[in-house]
Specification:
The complex is a heterodimer of chains A (218) and B (80). Chain A has 218 residues and is an alpha+beta fold. Chain A is 33% helix and 29% strand. Chain A contains 4 helices and 8 strands; from the N terminus they run E-E-E-H-E-H-E-H-E-E-H-E. In chain A, the strands form 2 sheets. In chain A, strands 2-3-1-4 form a 4-stranded antiparallel sheet. A 4-stranded antiparallel sheet of chain A has the order 6-7-5-8, covered by helices on one side. In chain A, a hairpin with a 2-residue loop joins strand 2 and strand 3. The termini of chain A are far apart. The chains are: A alpha+beta (218), B alpha+beta (80).
Chain lengths: 218, 80
């Protein structure tokens, strides 16, 4: 018996911005289910497809391509890959439940993209005389690094409308909400004013600025 | 041209690896996780399933695939 076909969800867009003719992961045509003023973009995929498991890298890159094609022209709220809906009715039910949240989210990020700056904090210079001193040393270096980044971001206004940061393994990641079309200006300003010790990436969909997302503000 | 191909043709190898990892990190780790969904982590990859019937069947299938080809996903996780 053939495995059941599910709907692989890519992103939510406003119903006024539904793109046409996209090819999804595994070659299925991307379709939209609209309800409550938003639309969910999906494509059919067999439940047992290796693109969802052993070939997940390939599947994820194909999903990224779909999202990028949509995101190039529209505001999107993305789903984590792979998010599978059982059938179209499950998507409609989800939109009935969460449509309002998605509309608010899309309004909040409208016309913006997310740029990210990663500042590695090398720990080879940390004080290793004891566990406590090591942690204190890393924390101190982290605070100094974040302060430097904040200063740098302040010089990038008005391009960076909002910013959040997160302490993660190996360094700090700063998320900046930047108006569409200003991402290159933002990147150039950062790269020209910094000492090159950080990595800038983007534009990404501004997922860190949705109401429910909460990168810590360490 | 797909973004991953464009990166591969225009950037040095180290940057290509880094960019691909950034992309994979965003696709696999950022984005809405639907409330009520069930997230199952297999070999470091979170699979998000909607509906218990899907979970029951997909996990079995996914585990079979993962068992056969765990190396690729583990390698990605280690690179990160």
């Amino acid at each position: 018996m053939a495995p059941p076909v599910r709907s692989l969800a890519y992103c939510i867009v406003s119903t006024t911005e539904i793109p046409q003719g996209l090819v999804g992961v595994g070659g299925g045509e991307v379709f939209s289910i609209a309800s409550e003023g938003v639309a969910c973009l999906c494509s059919p995929i067999e439940e047992g497809s290796s693109l969802l498991s052993s070939r997940v890298k390939e599947g994820a890159l194909a999903a990224y391509k779909v999202i990028q094609d949509v995101f190039a022209e529209n505001d999107v709220i993305t789903f984590r890959f792979p998010t599978l809906f059982v059938d179209e009715e499950a998507i409609r039910a989800h939109l009935r439940e969460k449509g309002n949240d998605y509309r608010e989210g899309l309004a909040r990020i409208a016309g913006h993209v997310q740029m990210e700056v990663f500042l590695p904090i090398a720990d080879e210079k940390a004080d290793r005389s004891s566990g406590t001193s090591y942690l204190k040393s890393v924390q101190k270096r982290g605070k100094a690094a974040k302060s430097g980044l904040d200063e740098l971001l302040a010089r990038c206004r008005p391009e960076a409308r909002d910013a959040k940061s997160r302490h993660e393994k190996g360094g700090f990641r700063v998320y900046a909400l930047v108006p569409r079309g200003c991402d290159m200006v933002f990147r150039r300003k950062l790269e020209s004013q910094g000492d090159g010790a950080f990595r800038v990436s983007g534009p990404w969909p501004p997922m860190a600025f949705l109401p429910e997302s909460d990168p810590d503000t360490a | 041209m797909p973004v991953s191909e464009k990166i591969a043709k225009t950037a040095p190898r180290e940057e290509v690896d880094l960019s691909l990892l950034e992309i994979l990190d965003h696709v696999l780790n950022a984005g809405v996780v639907v409330h009520g969904s069930i997230v199952i982590s297999l070999a470091g990859v979170d699979l998000v399933y909607l509906g218990l019937n899907v979970v029951l069947t997909s996990v079995e299938t996914a585990l079979r695939h993962i068992d056969k080809n765990a190396g690729e996903v583990s390698r990605l996780a280690r690179q990160k």
